[in-house]
Write a structure and sequence with these properties.
By secondary structure, the chain is α/β, with parallel strands linked by helices. It has a single domain, classed as NAD(P)-binding Rossmann-like Domain (Rossmann fold). The protein is 39% helix and 14% strand. The chain has 9 helices and 9 strands. Strands 3-2-1-4-5-6-9 form a 7-stranded parallel sheet, sandwiched between helices. Strands 7-8 form a two-stranded parallel sheet. β4, α5 and β5 form a beta-alpha-beta unit. The chain is globular, with a radius of gyration of 19 Å. The relative contact order is 0.15.
Length: 300
């Protein structure tokens, strides 16, 4: 684990997350061929948590497909993965907000590989703001991406699995929403919707041999940290009893556990990767307001 993963921040030119060299060599609990020849689709696979999942799946022998809005970012990740593993992920530039683009993506995956074994819905995004100040455009944007986009991907994969008469696994990256998410109400609403949706279709799709699960990260250090103010970053680690940040590898290994045979009897479930945050802390991504104690209380 890097010093940054233990909760250190750097005031000038911070580097959040692992380097590509680190992602290529980090130790893993899984055997090298665990996902050999299996096809794994990772949305948002060019950066952050998705990039970590992409590296790990490729290192475990999977044929990986990554999608996202920026082709240059996807290609850069694909190049790095190819250098590390000898296998180049297929890259598809698209937006999961667009249902027709999702259908085209799924058709391309099945046409190229003849199958899809695992769908990892990682793409998403939000911005820290008090809910009372959300613009309608901002609200719609987050809901459309995090909830609707995730659903388009889930349904498109499930329909093709049903048509092919084969099984599949879906893992949705969500958030820890049981205690609410002040200053992130839009994504809280969307992620709660995905969690309930996942539990519902896990039952509906069980006869199709499709498993659906979620991974709920807590404070996970990645390049996405750059959108948060320093006063919030300085205290993120206080929101959990382990008093540190998690890292993308923690999430990636949880995703693989659910996707591989290790998770073959798990559906409709959630693995919470948050250092115990659910028990004691609420994250304030824009900084805890003075009304709630500001810097005087634990939490952020």
């Amino acid at each position: 684990m890097t010093d940054l993963a233990r909760g250190r921040t750097e005031a000038a030119h911070p580097r959040f997350g692992f380097t590509e060299e680190e992602l290529a060599t980090l130790p893993t609990v899984f055997r090298d061929d665990l996902l050999k020849s299996q096809v794994v689709l990772v949305s948002g696979g060019g950066s952050g948590i998705g990039k970590g999942i992409t590296f790990l799946a490729a290192r475990l022998g999977a044929n990986v497909v990554i999608c996202g809005r920026k082709l240059e970012r996807l290609d850069a990740t694909a190049n790095a993965v190819e250098r590390a593993t000898g296998r180049r992920p297929m890259t598809v530039a698209m937006s999961i907000r667009e249902d027709e683009a999702v259908d085209a993506l799924m058709d391309r995956v099945f046409d190229t590989h003849g199958r899809l074994d695992h769908l990892i819905n990682n793409a998403g995004g939000q911005f820290p703001q008090d809910a009372i100040d959300f613009s309608r455009k901002g609200w719609r944007s987050v809901i459309d991406l995090n909830l609707n986009g995730t659903w388009w991907m889930m349904q498109a994969a499930a329909q093709r699995w049903r048509q092919a008469g084969c099984c599949g696994s879906i893992v949705n990256i969500v958030a820890n929403v049981d205690r609410g998410m002040p200053q992130a109400a839009h994504t809280c609403a969307a992620r709660a919707g995905v969690i309930s949706l996942s539990k519902t279709v896990a039952t509906e799709w069980a006869p199709l041999n499709i498993r659906v699960n979620c991974v709920a990260p807590g404070v996970i250090e990645s390049e996405g940290f750059q959108v948060y103010p320093d006063k919030a970053l300085a205290r993120f680690h206080d929101a959990n009893p382990m008093k540190r940040w998690g890292d993308v590898w923690d999430v990636a290994e949880a995703v693989v556990y659910l996707s591989a045979d290790s998770g073959k009897f798990i559906t409709g479930g959630i693995i919470v990767v948050d250092g115990g945050q659910a028990q004691i802390g609420v994250v304030w991504p824009a900084g805890r307001p003075d009304y709630f104690g500001g810097s005087k209380l634990n939490g952020v």
